[in-house]
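[Discussion] Sanity-checking designs against the backbone

I'm trying to build intuition for which residues belong where. Below is a C-alpha cell string of 650 positions. I'd appreciate it if someone posts a full sequence so I can compare it with mine line by line.
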C-alpha cells in the first residue's frame, strides 16, 4: 500500500509489466509550432500506444481482482493527453499544468501521469481501486500522490476550472470533457460564464457517443456537443480523434485563440480494441479475456501472465460467511429488485392505464439502479434520458403533479444532493414522485468519496405543515418488495434507498427469515430484531446485518443487548421508542453521514419523550479508503467496532 504522503523521488518503472521508461519526454510549443515534424509525430504516436497499453493493463487488473473500474474514457483520451503533456513541458509559463477532467471515471489517466511524473512507482498501478491503496475510482486530492485535483461527480469540473482561469488570467486552463459530462446543467452555465468573461479556458472533449446505458445520438435526439457550445457563443473545432496531425491542428488553433475554445473530438469508444470498440461496455473496466487478446496482440506477454495469475487474487471481507444472524442466508440486490417490483405493479395494469398514470425516467444508470428491466418489459412508460438528474427529477415531478399519476425517478444517492432544490419545487407543487436512490451509504463504493450516498436526510427538507416525505431503507430483499408495493401509489414524494452491495436476509432467533413468510411491512413501523434488557442498537441498511452480528456476539458473552431495524428513517414509532427509551443504553449505527444522518436526531426524539438512556451514534466520518467492503471497517461500523462501542457504553 502506498500512503498518500509518500512521494517517489524519481521515476520508478520497475515491477510493472509494460516498460514505461519508453515514454518520450516530448516538448511541443503550440504557440509557435504550426505543424508537427515527422520526429514529433512519431514520438507522440509511440507515447500514445505505450500509454494505451498501460491503461488497458492496469484497469484490467481491476477486472481481475473484482474491484472493477473504467478503461474506455481514459484509453480514448490518450492522444490529447499526450499532446497536452508536451505543451506543458514546452511552455510551463503559459499553462496551468493540470489535466482537470470533468469525467472522474477517467482517473486512470491521472494515475498514469502521476507515475510518469515520478510521484509514485509504476508497480502500484496494479493495485487500481483496491482498498487502502489510495487509487480510488475517481481522482481525489490529498489521497493519491501526483493527483492534483478532485473531479467530483460527472460534469462538475468545468465551472471550477472557470474559477482557476480567473485566478490565472495570463495562463491557459485545460478541462478535459466528454459528451456525457456535457449533458449536465452545470456545463451550460459554465459555458455562459466562460464566454461572458472571455476566460482562457480550453475544453478538450471526447465525443465518443457512448455513455453507461447507451448512445446519446440514439436516446437524446438533437443533442450535439459542438452545437450546444456554439449556441452559448463558444468557438469550436470538430476533429476525428485518431488522426494525430489533424488533432494537433485543432488543438493548436484552440491554444492560440485568446478566449474560451472547445475541441470536440469524435471517435468510437476504445478504438482498436477488438470486441469493445464502439460498445457501451467499454465504459467499464475491460474484461480480462478482452484485455488478454489486446495485450497479446501488442506483445505484452508478461502483462498477460500477471492478469491471469497474481491479479486474480482479490482481498475479501475477513468475516464473509461468518456473520451471525445472516449466516447461510440468501442474498439479494435490492437496487435491482426495485425495478422488478415496479414491473410487477405495471404488468397488473392495462397498457393504456399505465401509460396514462406512470412515467419512469432514467439518468443513464438503468443497469445500476434497477430500471433496465422496466425498459425491457414496459418500454411504453420508460423514458431513456441522459446525465441530467435535476431536469429528469423535475420531469418526473411534473408528470406526477396531477392526482392519480406518479413519476418514477432513480439515480445514485450521492446525486440526491444535486436535486435538493428540485425536490423542494416538487413538494411545493404537491407532486407525486417515487424516488429510488441506489448506492446509498458507502458499502462497495470503489468510486469513493464523491460517490458516497451519505446525506440522504437532505431529501426530507419540507416544512412541518407539508405532507411527510417518507425515507425508506429496507433491510433486505423481503422488505424491499413489500415496501415498494406498499408506497407505490402514495401521494407526495417518497424515497427508497438501496445499497450498491447485496444484502443477506435477516434471520430471526430461530434461524428463519425474519422478514419472509407471514411478515407484513408497515410504513413508520420499526422492527424488533432482537429484544434486550441492557440496551439497544438501532440500525438499517447494510449496517444492520453487521450490527446483528455484533449483537449476537455480545449476547453470547452475556451482554443482553437488543437490535432495532429502522426501515422508515424519518418517522418515530412511538411503541418502539418506549421500548428503547426504557433501556439503559441506545446506540445508532448507520452508513450515512454522522453529521447529517439518523444519529443526530434520534437522541432528540428520545429526549422529547422524556427518555434519557446513555446515547451514542456511529456513522460515516472520513473520506473513503477506496475498495469495496473495506469502507465499513475504515468508517468503524464493522461488527468489532460496534461491539467495542457498546461495551464502552455499558
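Best answer:
Here's mine. Compare freely.
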Amino acid at each position: 500500500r502506498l500512503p498518500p504522503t509518500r512521494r517517489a523521488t524519481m521515476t520508478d518503472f520497475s515491477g510493472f509489466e509494460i516498460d514505461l521508461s519508453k515514454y518520450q519526454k516530448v516538448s511541443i510549443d503550440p504557440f509557435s509550432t504550426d505543424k508537427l515534424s515527422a520526429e514529433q509525430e512519431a514520438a507522440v504516436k509511440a507515447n500514445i500506444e505505450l500509454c494505451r497499453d498501460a491503461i488497458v493493463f492496469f484497469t484490467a487488473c481491476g477486472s481481475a481482482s473484482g474491484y472493477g473500474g473504467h478503461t474506455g474514457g481514459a484509453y480514448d483520451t490518450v492522444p490529447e493527453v499526450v499532446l497536452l503533456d508536451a505543451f506543458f513541458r514546452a511552455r510551463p509559463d503559459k499553462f496551468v499544468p493540470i489535466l482537470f477532467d470533468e469525467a472522474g471515471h477517467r482517473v486512470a489517466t491521472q494515475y498514469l501521469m502521476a507515475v510518469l511524473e515520478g510521484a509514485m512507482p509504476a508497480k502500484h498501478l496494479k493495485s487500481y481501486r483496491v482498498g487502502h491503496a489510495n487509487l480510488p475510482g475517481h481522482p481525489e486530492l490529498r489521497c493519491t500522490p501526483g493527483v492534483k485535483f478532485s473531479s467530483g461527480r460527472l460534469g462538475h469540473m468545468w465551472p471550477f476550472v472557470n474559477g482557476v482561469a480567473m485566478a490565472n488570467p495570463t495562463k491557459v486552463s485545460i478541462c478535459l470533457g466528454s459528451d456525457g459530462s456535457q449533458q449536465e446543467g452545470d456545463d451550460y452555465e459554465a459555458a455562459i460564464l466562460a464566454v461572458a468573461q472571455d476566460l482562457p479556458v480550453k475544453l478538450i472533449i471526447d465525443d465518443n457517443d457512448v455513455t453507461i446505458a447507451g448512445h446519446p445520438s440514439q436516446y437524446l435526439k438533437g443533442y450535439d456537443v459542438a452545437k450546444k457550445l456554439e449556441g452559448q457563443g463558444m468557438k469550436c473545432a470538430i476533429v476525428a480523434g485518431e488522426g494525430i496531425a489533424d488533432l494537433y491542428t485543432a488543438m493548436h488553433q484552440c491554444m492560440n485563440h485568446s478566449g474560451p475554445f472547445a475541441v470536440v473530438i469524435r471517435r468510437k469508444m476504445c478504438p482498436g480494441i477488438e470486441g469493445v470498440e464502439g460498445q457501451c461496455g467499454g465504459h467499464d473496466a475491460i474484461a480480462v479475456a478482452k484485455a488478454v487478446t489486446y495485450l497479446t496482440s501488442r506483445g505484452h506477454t508478461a502483462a498477460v501472465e500477471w492478469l491471469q495469475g497474481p491479479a486474480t487474487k482479490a482481498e475479501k471481507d475477513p468475516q464473509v460467511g461468518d456473520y451471525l444472524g445472516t449466516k447461510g442466508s440468501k442474498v439479494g440486490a435490492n437496487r435491482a429488485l426495485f425495478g422488478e417490483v415496479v414491473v410487477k405493479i405495471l404488468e397488473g395494469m392495462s397498457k393504456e392505464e399505465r401509460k396514462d398514470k406512470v412515467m419512469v425516467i432514467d439518468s443513464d444508470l438503468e443497469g445500476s439502479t434497477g430500471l433496465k428491466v422496466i425498459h425491457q418489459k414496459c418500454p411504453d412508460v420508460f423514458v431513456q434520458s441522459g446525465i441530467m438528474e435535476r431536469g429528469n427529477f423535475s420531469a418526473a415531478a411534473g408528470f406526477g403533479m396531477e392526482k392519480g399519476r406518479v413519476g418514477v425517478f432513480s439515480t445514485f444517492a450521492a446525486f440526491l444532493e444535486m436535486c435538493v432544490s428540485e425536490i423542494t419545487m416538487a413538494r411545493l407543487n404537491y407532486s407525486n414522485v417515487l424516488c429510488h436512490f441506489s448506492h446509498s451509504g458507502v458499502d462497495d463504493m470503489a468510486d469513493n468519496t464523491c460517490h458516497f450516498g451519505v446525506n440522504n436526510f437532505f431529501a426530507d427538507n419540507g416544512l412541518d405543515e407539508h405532507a411527510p416525505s417518507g425515507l425508506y431503507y429496507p433491510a433486505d430483499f423481503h422488505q424491499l418488495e413489500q415496501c415498494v408495493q406498499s408506497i407505490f401509489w402514495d401521494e407526495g414524494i417518497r424515497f427508497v434507498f438501496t445499497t450498491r452491495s447485496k444484502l443477506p436476509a435477516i434471520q430471526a432467533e430461530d434461524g428463519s427469515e425474519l422478514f419472509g413468510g407471514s411478515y407484513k411491512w408497515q410504513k413508520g413501523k420499526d422492527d424488533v430484531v432482537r429484544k434486550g434488557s441492557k440496551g439497544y442498537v438501532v440500525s438499517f441498511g447494510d449496517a444492520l446485518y453487521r450490527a446483528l452480528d455484533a449483537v449476537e456476539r455480545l449476547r453470547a458473552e452475556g451482554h443482553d443487548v437488543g437490535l432495532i431495524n429502522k426501515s422508515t428513517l424519518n418517522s418515530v414509532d412511538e411503541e418502539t421508542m418506549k421500548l428503547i427509551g426504557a433501556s439503559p443504553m441506545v446506540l445508532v449505527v448507520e452508513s450515512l453521514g454522522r453529521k447529517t444522518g439518523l444519529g443526530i436526531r434520534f437522541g432528540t426524539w428520545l429526549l422529547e419523550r422524556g427518555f434519557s438512556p446513555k446515547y451514542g451514534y456511529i456513522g460515516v466520518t472520513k473520506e473513503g479508503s477506496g475498495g469495496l467492503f473495506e469502507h465499513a471497517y475504515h468508517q468503524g461500523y464493522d461488527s468489532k467496532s460496534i461491539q467495542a462501542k457498546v461495551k464502552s457504553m455499558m
